[in-house]
Amino acid sequence: MPVRLPFRPRRDAYPPDLWTKCPGCAEMLFNKQLDKSLRVCPHCGHHFRIPAKTRIEQLVDSGSFIERDSDLSPVDALGFVDLKAYPDRLMAAQLSTGLRDAAVWGIGNIGGRPVSMCVMDFGFIGGSMGSVVGEKVARAGEAAIADRIPLIIISSSGGARMQEGTYSLMQLVKTMGVVERVKAARVPFISVMTDPTTGGVFASFAVVGDVNLAEPNALIRFAGDRVSSGTISEELPAGYARAEFWFSHGFVDRIVARAHLRDEIIALLGFLIAPPLNGSAETPQAPVSRPRSFLSALTGALTGENVAESHNGETGASRGEAPRG
Ligand SMILES: [Zn+2]
Fold it and tell me: What's the 231 CA to ligand 1 centre distance in angstroms?
């Protein structure tokens, strides 16, 4: 009678539900460990793509997020068929992600401050922006204006959704229109670019935050190498499409590792929103975007100057700052 060993004698293959191979360093990572490290490789720091709901859990105060418009569903207005019919693609994506479309938006607290937040999900047809994603970004912006709370958009998208044709392109204008109104209302907007932020999302709201953050090594660009270099008839520099290149050219303000992203956003919200005045009924909780004082505070921190203006209770408006356009 053969002896039955209580453990597996040899691992012929790594079961995918237990292990993930890191594309950065080829190390086999235990999934439970990877989840504990926020899906960042502990060996090489590779940031794995994560679903929208996981991202929200990582950023907001526990249990504070209330999703809005979760039932907003896409329609196949063009009767579009490529290798598959668009409705079939939608259904497959809905079954695999549990989402109706590639973005989740809602209101939640980060560090005790309410924010309006829209998070994209690359797992849903490449995080592509069709009518629903555009509408959710727009509604997140409109809620930020109505409630005077900061807008945070976390991008993870291959660009516009070709299956919705022109409707998809219209979302660039729609989302930018709302972002301009957010800015005119002096409501802070923090954009976080994660891997990848490309195409129509790059070409619209993702890069026009008051503060533009990016995760390390995130792919950020409008078009692929062939199209980009063909357009300008020049060879593109190596690594031009990565977050570090954009940072070194001033296009991205900060590169933030996932483990620090929540703390970074809390710190930025502290800079961008004036603290509530003690018991004053005149300006109950009207947050005021103060980009200049934020920048001078940063400059002060760099040069060692003592910048006290963020504590003197003045609002940006009372100092006669020109409204941003
Ligand atoms: Zn790795």
Answer: 34
